[in-house]
């Protein structure tokens, strides 16, 4: 059991380091399989978001020497869900949780992509200039 967990951890770490690779694999693979490029893009976004959350959390923790990365991301996503749910409740009178969660997850993809690029540049710069 321990070996399986270690293998899963290594595969996740490998895919999370360069998240564009699994995104492209899923996008082109699922797109070629079904022929539906829009659905392939959405599925690739959803899978890559999980990888980006872990990678951005680790980058944040290493750059700022903290352990708040994952908790901060989850806090921001929960606050975003609350705000989107409030907007939906005020406009429609009820909250569709599935729709709110999907919106938060997909907005998280874009936010995590920007944070990944920014933190990766900062991390590379920090490692180059601290010799």
From TrEMBL:
Native organism taxonomy: Bacteria, Bacillati, Bacillota, Bacilli, Bacillales
Keywords: Membrane, Transmembrane, Transmembrane helix
Pfam families attached to this UniProt entry: DUF3397
Protein name: DUF3397 domain-containing protein
Cleaved signal peptide residues: none
Transmembrane stretches, start-end: 12-31, 43-64, 70-87, 107-129
Organism this protein belongs to: Paenibacillus oenotherae
